[in-house]
Amino acid sequence: MAVAERPTTTRTGTDGLSVRRRGLRSFWPQYAAVSPFYVLFLVFGAFPILFSVYLSFTDWDGIGDIKFVGLQQYAFLLQDSRFWNAVSNTLIIWVISTVPMLFLALVMAFLLHQNIRMKGFYRVAFFIPNVTSMVAMAIVFGSVFSDSFGIVNSALTSLGLPTVAWLSTDWGIKITIAVMVVWRWTGYNAILYLAALQAVPDELYDAAKVDGAGFWRTFFSVTIPMLRPVILFTVITSTIGGLGLFTEPQILFGAANGNGTVGGVNEAGMTIVLYQYNQAFSQLDFGYGSAIAWALFALAAVFAIINWRLLRDRDAVPRVGSRAARRRTKEVAR
Amino acid sequence: MTSPRPGGAPGRPPSRRAVLRAGFAGAAGIPLTAALAGCGQGTSISSNPSELVLWYWNRSIAPSLLQKAAQQIPGTSKRLRADVIGGAFDSKLRTGFAAQAYIPDITAVNSNAALYFPSEDQFVNLDDYGAQDFKDDYYEWKWNLGRTPTGRFLFFPMDTGPTGFFYRSDLFEAAGMPSQPDEVSAAVRTWDDWIAFGKQLRESSDVALAGNAVMVFNQFVNASPQRYFDKDDKPLFHEPGSAIREAWDTAVKAVRAKVTRNLQVENEQNAAWNSGKLGANIEGAWWMKVLSDTAPDLSGKWRIAQQPGLPGNSGGSFLAVPKTSKDPAAALAFARWLTLPENQAQSYNEIQLFPSAPKAFTTGLMADSGGFFGDQDPLAFFSTAAENVPTTFISTYENQTTAFTDQLRVVESAGKDPDQAWDDAVVAVDKLLKKRGVI
Amino acid sequence: MSAPELTRSSRAQRDRLHVVRPRRSRQWVLGRVVTHGCILVGVLLSLFPFYWLLVMSTSTTAQIFSYPPNLLPSTHLLQNLRNVVANIDLLGAMLNSFIVAGSLAVLVVLLDSLAAFAFAKYKFPGRDVLFAVLLVTFLVPGNLSLVPSFVLMSELGWMGQLQALIVPGAANAFGIFLLRQFAQSSIPDELVESATLDGAGFFRTWWSIAIPMMRGGLAFLGIFTFVTAWNDYIWPLVVLVDPGRQTLQTALAQLNSVYTTDYGMIMAGAVVSVVPLIGIFLIGSRHFIANIAAGALKG
Predict the structure, then answer these.
(1) Whose C-alpha in A103, A107, B278, C200 is 20 to 30 A from the C-alpha of B87?
(2) What's the helix, strand, coil split of chain A in %, to 5?
(3) What single-letter DSSP state applies at residue B162?
(4) Cβ of A133 and C230 within 8 Å?
(5) Quick check: pTM over 0.90?
(6) A304 CB near a chain C CB, below 8 Å?
(7) At how many degrees (to 10) do helices A134-144 and C248-258 cross?
(8) How far is Cα B136 from Cα C50, in angstroms, rounded to an integer?
(9) pLDDT tens digits, residue range A135-158?
(10) How many Cβ contacts (< 8 angstroms) between chains A and B?
């Protein structure tokens, strides 16, 4: 900083460039203001990610010496059926939780959007699961879905239906985890949808009514298009959350007592992050844990690219509007 | 601030820490590490020099003895702070070694002590502090398990886990089955007898003998002189007629006879013991305490009979002293004091830990279990059982073999073909052993 | 419009409705009933686990294990709570959770609002590139680098220490992104310009103009950060290697894995970890809910 002021001469002499040169120093408060995030990200975000590249080429238990093993961890990963099982579990649980969750959220938002009393109370009631400790709730759900003393099975019995071994069958395990996700996030998403619904101008509905559109037609041609941006947002959020699913299966099927399979019977509830955690901090296989992290990173990157596309489209909402406008003018012209 | 971190101490070969530090400085481009690393605390959990921290798990050490040691460890000037560790005990301890932070000054280690053989330099050789003077007080087989293949003595004996067949005599009686310990023992001499017995019980009263197939499998292995590996860590389970394969077949037979109840989660088993759907278990002596905690209302209804074949050893733990311990001599003094015959008697009375020191039986201090087992005295039972426990060796790599029990659970809960499951388990375990460089 | 109609039960109005549009009215009433019914079912499902938690935390373990389950609360809450306190340092864990969540909330609000204000209201070279970088980091899910972060923390000597939970999260992309939207819409450019003309520097302008005008967004971000930090689990699980220093979540997980035979006690522990946060949420709920939606919509 203690550099003597030097007159900025630029060969090109364009104003913009000289302003920029001179400006850099005068903008120090802005750089200082935005720098904490980037410094923290470099140190605690980017650096660990890079370091894990190195680790993923090693065999290391965290205690002994680091042994460089080249691509061995990745070679093992490719033919590790447990890993691929975790990938497919994660995706399955993501789908069977996200689809019902967003659908229910849409329904709830739509219902709440009707003019009803106690809307404030309902919103709070729907939102509370989202701020609740997942550790506590995983414990609660574990007993709600218990094979032998759970209230779900008790209810099934009293309805004359057969009970389900929720916590010890392939689909039972996945559904239990998915139900927890749905329970936690439906209200959150419903609140977002509700806000978006309330932002839809009444004129659009009036216009649809004038055109004689029925309820469903209005729903699909007015409501859904107007909600598109927020629906995309919720899809993105649930992708990020879905790929990182950990707490629910870890509490329910962490098998911390060494009695039972980690991830539940047949590892049906083993998610990628739980597998990574398990390999790294139970097996103390840091190299493999890092390789899994990178595989997850690759998967996340694919989703991030898709998301990024969606986001860009989303920024282009006005453009969508204008495209529609253009279409309309075309129609008129025809 | 003052205690040097092992990786950073001068004069040592460049360690993995150095690699990290170089990479860190390069990536971040700032001397942050140097600035921050100095602020870290040492490896010990408690900064108080007169306080030794012990890690143990619930029911592995008698609370009253811990309380005494919390005042003062007899014969030393130190006090003990005991931290109970949940769940994945070994993971936590090994993670501590990896982090070189928050390592206890003394720690309990379970019967799978061999897990620590590869990282044995993390522990103090107790011989250096005169542990051999106490050798004669303990079962020889138990004592010898504390020594690593390189000849260092790391694991001081705490308790042992002779096993027995716990059962609900009232349920057996109601089902018209033998219900007195002698009768039951006679009726289940072999595993086939046991399965036939269980089949009849299940058919007549819907009471199961085992929570799941894994219990049968594990207790079969625990009673076998041969386990997964030999002493040189060579896997034995590939061989036809291996103990592991026999245990597998026995467990599968039990599943088919519906002797097991397909309860794969611990809570479910606890609930089933409470409700009487599960009327038995084969487990180590320490399970008496678990049972009386889980189902206190069933006091007086349980009995113990001899399990099929010979009794086994399930659990039974050790104490070990990490090399970073503040005061290894005091830590050993604690281990010795804790396992004095009179204190082992106390541990038995309080939480039914079965002694590793035979003299505990002759102290005359060991009490009856207060009627939880009716008029039966479990002490007499387990004392006899302890004499017949085969000496076995648990390999370093047994924690790589969970595929067997994992697959067995699939057989039981999803009806997977047992032969297919066995093959899958062998493939999975071999894969891991190859990865760990064992085969 | 329709809500008051429903509340006002003046006969005249009902008659009018009947007379004018009898069919529509019946349909309308039916619709109302269905709507309310569905919402009520939703509310019940939302709140049921809390009720169930209450039932179990007031029961003995044997009562919990009974089948069919008892549907009503029992009377053993105090005993269960006493067992929790006797077995685990729950107050210490709660204090740690407050320290971590509280400091994170304050730090995030300060640092994110600084960055957001700079991004929203100032043009500086590289701004758009920096912001694009920020957006990219936002899309990368967390939990990617548990192992190296663990090694980094042990290298820094932060293992088991609360700063390992606080410092890495002291500024985040989400908050900057959100507050930038807030600043753009709620702080008029003229205000910033006139402050600058008056000779106020960036930080002064931030403190005296941006902070007060973004109050709503800051309060939201603060609560949001607090809630997230309070409920965080995997990172504390990795870092807090000292069983004597835990957050409520890891302490509860520990309770759950150590004392497997005392279910009632575990449930009482769960109650303790859930209640304070719900309290905080209820106090700020109106604000919170309004803003979480606003943030998502604007973002």
Answers:
(1) B278
(2) 75, 0, 25
(3) B
(4) yes
(5) no
(6) yes
(7) 30
(8) 57
(9) 999 999 999 999 888 999 999 999
(10) 119
